[in-house]
Amino acid sequence: xxxxxxxxxxxxxxxxxxxxxxxxxxxxxxxxxxxxxxxxxxxxxxxxxxxxxxxxxxxxxxxxxxxxxxxxxxxxxxxxxxxxxxxxxxxxxxxxxxxxxxxxxxxxxxxxxxxxxxxxxxxxxxxxxxxxxxxxxxxxxxxxxxxxxxxxxxxxxxxxxxxxxxxxxxxxxxxxxxxxxxxxxxxxxxxxxx
Length: 194
What we know:
Elements: H1 18-21, H2 29-38, H3 41-52, H4 58-71, E1 73-74, H5 77-108, H6 115-138, E2 146-147, H7 152-166, H8 174-185, H9 188-191
Antiparallel strand pairs: 1-2
Helix pairs in contact: 2-4, 2-6, 3-8, 4-7, 5-6, 5-7, 7-8
């Protein structure tokens, strides 16, 4: 085009537009809560440690936080197992393999023409699969736990329940659990996203 300005060159990782990271209108309350909470770096680090070190599903952890902070539902070990079992097949057959492929590509993609672009697409599909899992968990929210007052303290207790019931190695998880609960307690917008 005559007079058209060229697209500016970008260096480093592309910043996502809010429309790419924010849930679309009409998405589940859990998705809205989880995206807002996970957007905090301390929560990302804590969730990834709970996933990689303790074998927990990040979405089940975020579900536990949401049920406590937003819904006021106190979870027990059986509720933790119910939530985990509800998404186990999806996690094991869809999310997990996508994560493995994306992680494997990290070390080899940059050496191949189009490798980084393909890895970014795999990452986007992995994220969409995670959001589908959150929507599935959202439907369980009112069916699990006992009614209680919503609070960051209840979110903390619920995440502890998840760790105790589901972690392959619960020792050392408390700092990560407390970091997530503190992030909820420090932001009333997150806790009220029901």
